[in-house]
Amino acid sequence: MKYMALIYVDPTGFSSRSDEEREAITKEYFDLAEDPRMVHSDQLQPGSTATTVRVREGETLTTDGPFVETKEELGGYYLFEANDLDEAIEIAARMPASRLGGAVEVRPLVERAA
Amino acid sequence: MIDEVFHDEWGRVLATLLGFLGDFDLAEEAAQDAFAVAAERWARAGMPRNPGAWLVTTARNRAIDRIRRERNLAAKTRLLDVPEAVTDDVEEDAIFKDERLELVFTCCHPALATEAQVALTLRTLGGLTTDEIARAFLVPTETMAKRLVRAKKKIKAAGIPFRVPDDHLLPERLAAVLAVVYLIFNEGYVARVDLAAEAIRLGRALAELMPDEPEVHALLALMLLHDARRDARLRDGELVLLADQDRSLWDRDQIAAGRAALERAIALHGRGPYVLQAAIASLHADEERDWNEIAALYGELARLTGSPVVALNRAVAVAKAEGPEAGLALLDELDRDLAGYQYLHAARADLLRRLERVEEARAAYERALALTTAEPERRFLQRRLADL
């Protein structure tokens, strides 16, 4: 089954750490990206760089910032293969954000016939 | 008689079918089909020697027939090669793998909301109808039906596995299962739906399926010991305190069964929260209560769980063992955590009453009343207040 892990980070958590700690955390993310079950993954720039787009009655409206302003920010994602939800949860629990005050949302992809 | 067999066999049959078909809806339909056939055929020809095997075989055959006829269904199941249906020969001595553990761990998976876990467990393992579960939890049938549909959809879509969790996950997953069963037990009694009895049935099944787990036996013990006192708990709709209960109304057999289960748990070196609670319940069933031991057990439980409510219970036991002043001192420590908890104020009121500190007792009873909604409990507090 294919799952998407959406990583919500506590922004204060990262910035308040030492350079060493931040390097170690980043390395964890990169190592996880090398897992054979990973299909794709990437880091997003901070929520302050986001633009939200809506089209209403033919008019394109943009607002500054993410879709929803929350304390935690969407920081990145992993798209991966797993046999079942338990395996997916185990993978998600290895993402540093999950233990550093943030959270990881795990959602299955819509299966489409090849 | 047939109803009883159906009630006992539903969970087992459904679990086996689910293991075989990998789809809740298919399994449920097949099971319902088979039970319908059984209801008609057994009424005419009598019950087969092995009703479980009969039901599973019949259900499997009907499911297989259906799959062969509707090829799109085959994709839903895990069957790659649809086997030949064996229509008339029911292997009387067939032993089907008992997959109820797989089923209960699926139903109680942490990715499902607690209320969904409870509903699914009662529907699949308990065999209660959607309507019965709805009435038990005082929600419309439509709401409960939607809850069940959503839960099954989540299981399928998110890939919740039909499996007993691996060893490293088992302790926390088992704790979740036990919590669901105990929740069902504590929902109490609603017209025509005896959830407590249902919970005890589930507890017994778990004890059979996981005989080496002490907390499983301990939960069963706890439920049996509590349930044994149900007939003595109310007199003319009025709440009766444990100390004042007519012990002749207690179910002696259940107490014995509860104590036997507790012994099994202790023999397995259990010392978890359910073991402690069951041990306390067992001590309460003695004529002369060992309040020191009860207080000590509550102390251990409080340390284990960090629960202020448990600390409250300990304070009450200490008051019994060492006198009201000792208890009051402990209650004072709980003011911050339990300010809005009626039982703290009721307990304090009771101890103050014993010490004849009437004005303080009155204030405490009034605070308790302000927080109490259940009628039997309100009446009890009001009587105490009037007696001051």
Observed structural traits:
heterodimer, A: 114 residues, alpha+beta, flat, B: 388 residues, mainly alpha, two-stranded antiparallel ribbon, 4 strands, 69% helix
Description:
- The complex is a heterodimer of chains A (114) and B (388).
- With 114 residues, chain A is α+β, with helices and mostly antiparallel strands.
- Helices cover 25% and strands 36% of the residues of chain A.
- Chain A is built from 3 helices and 6 strands.
- Chain A starts with a strand and ends in a 6-residue tail after the last strand.
- The model of chain A has no long low-confidence stretch (mean pLDDT 93).
- Chain B has 388 residues and is mainly alpha-helical.
- Chain B has 20 helices and 4 strands.
- In chain B, the strands form 2 sheets. A two-stranded antiparallel ribbon of chain B has the order 1-2. Chain B has a two-stranded antiparallel sheet with strand order 3-4.
- In chain B, a hairpin with a 2-residue loop joins strand 1 (189-190) and strand 2.
- The interface between A and B is small, with 12 and 11 residues.
Calculate Rg of chain B over CA atoms: 25 Å
Can you give the mean pLDDT of chain A? 93
Low-confidence stretches of chain B: none
Provide the β-strand percentage band of chain B: under 5%
Largest sheet of chain A, in brief, is:
4 strands, antiparallel
Task: Give the strand order, joined by hyphens, for the main sheet of chain A.
Answer: 2-5-1-6
Determine Rg of chain A (CA atoms, Å): 16 Å
- Termini separation of chain A comes to 14 Å
Number of helices of chain B: 20
